Fold tRNA (5-methylaminomethyl-2-thiouridine)(34)-methyltransferase MnmD.
Amino acid sequence: MDFVTTGDGSKTLYNAAIGECYHSRHGAVQESRHVFVKMGLEHYVQQTGTGDIAVLEVGFGTGLNLLQTGEYILDKPLQVDYVGIEGFPLPLSTIAATGYDESVDSGLWSAYLEGYEKALEGPIQLNAGLHLHIAHSLLMDFQSDRQFDVVYFDAFAAVHQPEMWNDAALGHVAQFVRSGGVFVTYAITGNLKRSMKSLGFKIEKAPGAPGKREMLRATRI
């Protein structure tokens, strides 16, 4: 694992075994804010007016998307219950070296570092508006009796991890999305659109983060 400085000055990890970075080289933080927070969480809140949101992330990684979610809700009357699926959790020392404290509230960052390993064991409360559980599980082994409002699908790209993007994997995720729930990801391909449509989602082409013209947003019908 090596750190790479991205286009917005924030860092990401390069995973040599996979052959890809955890986040966009064009800007890790700005991709997280745009794809997952703005196009996913913020969109869902605007559409529904709800203040209690359950978020499921596929590919928790460094926790960048969690941190940007926490930053977004800090000054808002929102409660987020966040579950991240991660088959290969990073060590705390790697998390601490990301430098993501530069883009989030200091209290949130401290709570995340203090709670990271605890969250791998069970649900914890990071602050007044944010609960976290990191499910140490491969995607296809993940089970829950819960339904989620927003899904952040942040797996490595299909060219490197095709098993995360096939019909079986997407169908497994879809069962956890409530009616009206939103699924967002940085990618958009013909196969992805067809799969999500066949699973009962309405497909949208949304503007992509820097470096990508479009991304996918899908709403469960």
